Amino acid sequence: MNRRELREQIFKLLFRVEFNGMEEMPQQCDLFFCEEENGASEKDMAYIRGKYERIADKLGEIDALINEKAKGWSTDRMGKVDLTILRLAVYEIRYDEDVPTGVAINEAVELAKKFGQDGSSGFVNGVLAKFA
Q1: What φ, ψ does residue 123 adopt, rounded to 5°?
Q2: Threshold 0.70, pTM exceeds
Q3: Using alpha carbons only, what angle is made at residue 29 by residues 24 and 32, rounded to the nearest 5 degrees?
Q4: I want to staple 108 with a disulfide (CB 3.0 to 4.6 A). Which of 7, 60, 89, 97 is the partner?
Q5: Half-sphere exposure of residue 125, counting CA atoms within 13 Å on the CB side?
Q6: pLDDT-based confidence at 38, cuts 50/70/90?
Q7: pLDDT tens across 18-31, in order?
Q8: How buried is residue 78: exposed, middle or buried, by Cβ count under 10 Å (0-12/13-18/19+)?
Q9: 79-119 pLDDT, tens per residue?
Q10: How many Cα atoms sit within 13 Å of 100 on the Cβ side?
């Protein structure tokens, strides 16, 4: 898989946090990779799971950063897709030295165009611009 495909898989796995408790997520990870559409090589599965776990460990910090920057919005009011995209991008901007900030923002906007609603890409871009 290329980086964009890996990021999309991480987004899909991270999205499950919105519907499952953190104690259920190890089982959800296993189920995620059993689904045919999420099939990946062992190397890619390890990368996806590892990055998901690093993001999940920092969700409280990431949400606090988002709440600080998103004036007039809180993570409680955001759409689940937009919030998940923001969480992934903020993690990449703040904690992942392998991903340049511009790339993280661009990829987040692309995810928002693909999975979000009509205004999602503009919203995601606006929030993430405050991190740049």
Answers
A1: -65, -50
A2: yes
A3: 120
A4: 89
A5: 11
A6: low
A7: 999 889 999 998 88
A8: buried
A9: 999 999 999 999 999 999 999 999 999 999 999 999 999 99
A10: 3
Q: For the chain, which domains are there?
A: 3-129 (1.10.940.10)
Amino acid of residue 84 = T
> In angstroms, rounded to a whole number, what is the distance separating the alpha carbons of residues 72 and 49?
33
HSE-CB for 29 with a 13 A CA cutoff: 17
Q: Tokens 């955001």, residue?
A: 78
What is each CA distance from 103 to 13, 94, 110, 132, in whole angstroms? 20, 13, 10, 11
- Give the relative orientation of helices 25-34 and 3-15 as an angle to the nearest 10 degrees: 130
The set of long-range contacts for 118-121, using a CB threshold of 8 Å and a minimum separation of 24, is 120/79, 120/81, 120/82, 120/85
Hey, what amino acid is at 1? Answer: M
Which helix or strand (DSSP H or E) is residue 92 part of? helix 80-95
Residue partners of 103: CB distance under 8 A and separation at least 6: 92
Q: CB-based contacts of 101: which residues, under 8 Å, 6+ apart?
A: 93, 131, 132
Closest CA to 128 of 72, 85, 79: 85
